[in-house]
Specification:
The chain has one domain: 3-Layer(aba) Sandwich (Rossmann fold). The protein is built from five helices and eight strands. The N and C termini lie close together (about 10 Å).
């Protein structure tokens, strides 16, 4: 784990279970209206991290959280409603906006948006940006970056939790 001067938190996980646990820790810190925007190539661990975020938000069964590529968004019940968007098939921010995304982003739940780079202009200004990387066949690197004061607090708290393990 490392934190740069720009408040980016970098974490390397050794296996999918650790990735889920990292996501769970993040999910426990989130509150209504928080948005996590994920980018990274196929297989980099985005959906695995999202499964953990969902668990941290109180979703009971992570196996229900799958990539919603063909339905664009799936909703899960937990301590907070959890909305999982997949922008892979979208061609710009307008397509996400037409789906009413702002109502979800400003609503009573938590949102995770995979392939966020495809819809960047539709995302709220203050969000947790996550870049996922392949380190090797089992290890993944996640860079958490804030885009505003709320997300900076979330990432700082996540960093403190991880450094205590």
């Amino acid at each position: 784990m490392s934190i740069s001067s720009r408040q980016t938190l970098s974490v390397i996980t050794r296996n999918p279970q650790r990735t889920v646990e990292l996501g769970r820790r993040l999910g426990r810190l989130l509150k209504k209206g928080d948005v996590v925007a994920l980018v990274g190539e196929l297989g980099a661990g985005k959906t695995t991290l999202v499964k953990g975020i969902a668990l941290g938000c109180g979703v009971r069964d992570a196996s229900e959280v799958t990539s919603p590529t063909f339905i664009l968004m799936s909703e899960h019940k937990g301590r907070l409603p959890f909305y999982h968007f997949d922008a892979y098939r979208l061609h710009g921010a307008d397509e996400l906006t037409v789906l009413g995304s702002h109502e979800y982003f400003e609503g009573t739940g938590v949102c995770a948006v995979e392939w966020a780079e495809r819809v960047g202009d539709a995302l709220p200004a203050d969000r947790v940006d996550v870049r996922a990387w392949h380190v090797n066949s089992k290890r993944r690197r996640f860079d958490f970056s804030p885009t505003g004061p709320g997300s900076a607090k979330i990432i700082a708290r996540l960093g403190r939790q991880i450094s205590v393990r």
